[in-house]
Amino acid sequence: MKPADKLCILMFDEMSLKADITYNERKNLVIGVVNNGRETKPKFADHAQVATKGPELALQIKTIIENLQETGSNVVATVCDRGTNNRNALSFLLNETSVHMLRNGQKDREDTKLIIINDKKIVPLYDHPHLLKAIRNNLLEKN
What we know:
Elements: E1 7-11, E2 22-24, E3 29-31, E4 33-35, E5 40-44, H1 54-70, E6 74-80, H2 84-103, E7 115-117, E8 120-126, H3 128-142
Parallel strand pairs: 1-6, 6-8
Antiparallel strand pairs: 2-3, 4-5, 7-8
Helix pairs in contact: 1-2
Pfam family, one: TNP-like_RNaseH_N
InterPro entries: TNP-like_RNaseH_N
Domain Transposable element P transposase-like RNase H: 2-50
């Protein structure tokens, strides 16, 4: 496979779900409660990223990127809207990268807005339709 064929972007967003609880007898599993892949919480899952705070979402993003890298994929960017949890998660990953670089004496001004996972630089981006909508809303609300 050509290197260009391995390039990818990780896109993530929160999604509303209909709150519903069901029991799968075959798997002996309750479906419809919060499950982040590591633990199940006794709360209705009414969003695909329900109650996912910044640090927890950051860990999920990092895990997904590491798994993609293990397959040979080259994640070059992330794309999301400017939701509070998304911004907090990206800020957490940027700070983690900054601390790692400072500890290793690698601090470089151009890398301050990059996420680095397994020595691969990843650019965090916000999707432009949401940015345009936010600008429009600010102009309407704040003149």
